[in-house]
Amino acid sequence: MDTMRDRFIATTSQLLDEDPRLALVLAEISRAGFDRAERAHPDRVVNVGIREQLLVGAGAGMALTGLRPIVHTFASFLVERPFEQVKLDFGHQGVGGVLVSAGASYDWPAGGFTHMSPGDVALLDTLDGWTVHVPGHPDEAEALLREAAAGDGRVYVRLSVQSNDRARPVGAGTGFTAVREGTGGVVIAVGPMLDNVLAATDGLDVTVLYAATVRPFDGAGLRRAVSGHRAADVVIVEPYLAGTSTAAANDALAELPHRVLGLGVGRAELRKYGEMDEHLAAHGLDARGLRERIGAFLHR
């Protein structure tokens, strides 16, 4: 199976052929995959070099001319390093675009902490008007990318090497999708966390909701999910900073007695970089770690 990043390259190359409104801005990352597209559309495929602030600024400048920019690099260089440009050049100027990241929280541990970005979604939460997609499969990444490219708003698509075994329905109006039904609590699995959550909750009387779009947060879907439960106990399992969506869940359930547990990447820096699976286990996001923490919370 191809990766989400492979699918992004293939899909974006095709979209550039089909839609003269689209432009692609790169900062060296993934450039080799866009060689053909760069030759075919030299005026709409721009590589700015290792200049991430310019990357975002150039994309916003293209948006001001009426183009629909797709801006791409690693998450740490797309959201964290040029955050001021994301805030001002897109948000303050009121223009739209599609930010597509690679690397996720720790997809390439050998790259070190500079290439890790567990705080990207939390950082975007400080800004208004961003839609955030966290696909869990290459097919989902393609569908969400096509939808984002066809729109006009500000969209962040967070790609990862980690992937679920199969794709789920995604896109406008989908909201949270019930993958498993139960009455003893609700577990929200975000993007590539779904397979581990399903393994961790096997045999537990819980509802498992799947979320590939986390902003806007589907508060109505969460309220529906807890309506038939013995208690409004909710666990959110996210592939980025733990607790990123707990405030949104608390707001959605403000009129109900409830408990919310946010599971995700911890704040402590793991300096022995290892492999991606080792990071999952260290943060308790493998099936075993999730089973222990979800079970302890729901049966407290």
Automatic annotation (TrEMBL):
Signal peptide extent: none
MF (Gene Ontology): magnesium ion binding
Name the UniProt record assigns to this protein: Transketolase
SUPFAM superfamilies membership: Thiamin diphosphate-binding fold (THDP-binding), TK C-terminal domain-like
InterPro entries documented for this protein: PDH/Transketolase, THDP-binding, Transketo_C/PFOR_II, Transketolase-like_Pyr-bd
Domain of life: Bacteria
Chain ranges passing through the membrane: none
Organism: Streptomyces atratus
Domain Transketolase-like pyrimidine-binding stretches: 2-167
CDD domains, A to Z: TPP_PYR_DXS_TK_like
Entries under Pfam families matching the protein: Transket_pyr
